[in-house]
Every structure is written in structure tokens, then in C-alpha cells.
Amino acid sequence: MTDGTSSTAAPNADQVAYWNGDAGDKWARLQAHLDGLFAPISAAAVAAAAPRQGEHALDIGCGCGATVLALAEGVGSLGRVTGVDISAPMLAVAEHRIAASALTQAAVLKADAATEPFAPGSFDLAFSRFGVMFFDAPVEAFINIHRALKPGGRLVFACWRPFKANPWFSVPYRAAVPHLPEQERPEPEAPGPFAFADPDRVGRILGLAGFAEVRVEAFDAPLTLGRHGEVEEAMRFTVQVGPVSRALASGTEAQRAAAERAVAAALAEVDGPEGIRLGAQCWFVSARA
Asked: What is d(CA 250, CA 39) in angstroms, rounded to the nearest whole number?
């Protein structure tokens, strides 16, 4: 797939189906654990976005609403945050969390940021934590986001660096796959977690979409998959997220059991006083409309 090629099917149809099926249900169910896992990245990404009092912000791929709430704190009662996502199960969680908060300036909408006809120039800030790597046609998607921003508006998002640079993905996956059927190697630029691993590609896409002042900065953080001594619990969580979860789905019951034992053994090797931790590496990308 080239940077700007549109699909002949409905835009992002595969992703819509995926995130409204078992994956969306799973992430909604694991919301509290996932919020804790990603907390260091979420806090740093929102700080990099620097939401200001009174601003209107768009949260792309907002999921269960953690960053919607954080941005809403930043823009204050005179601002507004609109979170958009294609996953109904996760948005239901986000709506519940917003209703339980005092942040009336926050709202969520079931929509695809790639194609949603936002009012032109309606946002000061477009933000995303791991929500923009799944577009079928990323140039067109970012043109749509650019159109939604005010002139000079800010784009800030977090995306993953390469698979091999992210032990929290690679360690469980590499432990599991010897026990499973051979896995198909995804195309590096296909929609998915690592579609924006190449910073040069990110810069090209944003430039073609009309953005200026593009900056790509590295951010590293340890992710805590479980508490010290709770290897089995950490394994049960870990095998439900990331590439290892899709790999496990390809195996028989016996193969999955063997793979899970191998993942548990790999996690036991990184169990320390601060918990069961593996490294994560991201890009923080910023640009101006």
C-alpha cells in the first residue's frame, strides 16, 4: 500500500469490524489495566500536546476515554474536548466515565476521524495516543484532520516505534510463536500498530496532507504488565493485547497452552521489585496546520 492510496472498500472497513468485535469488547473489559499500563505514555503525550484553557481539542481514536478526560482537565470548563473512535464497546466505557466525572466539557462520538465531516477550522488541537496508525489511506485521513484544525492549529500524536524496539510487544510474541502455526509477516506499512514506525514516512504523509513544522521525537518508558510475584496474572493480561493475542488465536487449544506457558516463563525473567516490566518505545509527533 502506498502512502496515499485509497481502498476500494469502505474506508477502514477491516479496522471497524475488528474494533467492534472481540477486540473492542476485550479492550473495554481491560480498560483499568490498560490505563495503568499506558499511564506513563498518556501523561507524557498529553503534556506534549499542552492543552490550553478554552481550547477545542479533538482526541482521535480515544478508546475508553482516558486521554479525553486528561485533555478536558487541560482545556478547562471554557474549552471542549471531542473524542472520536470507531469502537462502540470502548466508547460505551468512555461515555460512562465522562458521565461519572465533573468534566462537562468532554464528549465522545462514534466516528472515523479519517472521513468524518468535521466543521472546517473547528479545533485548536488534534491529539491521539496510538489512534492514527490504522488508516487505510493516511494522507487522505490527515487531510481531513488538517481541514478540521484552525489555521496554525496543533497536531500531536504518539505512535509506536518498530516492533523490535518494543520489548513489551516482542518478548511475549517471540516466546509464544515457536509453539504456534507459522505466522504471516505483515507488510511494514499496512494499517496496524507499527505503520508509523518509520519517522521519514510519517513526515512524508503529514507534508502531503498540508502540515508544516513536523517534529518527531523519541519517547521511552517501562510498562508494568503486572505486580511483583504475579506472573500468572501478568501472563493472562499480556496474551490478550498486542501481536501475541492475534498469534495465539491461530493455534489449537494445546498449542495455546504451550505458548502461554512460554510467555509466563519469559515474564518471570523480568519480574523485579517494581513489578513485571518491559520497555516501550514511541514517537511523539507534532505539526502545525
From this structure: 30
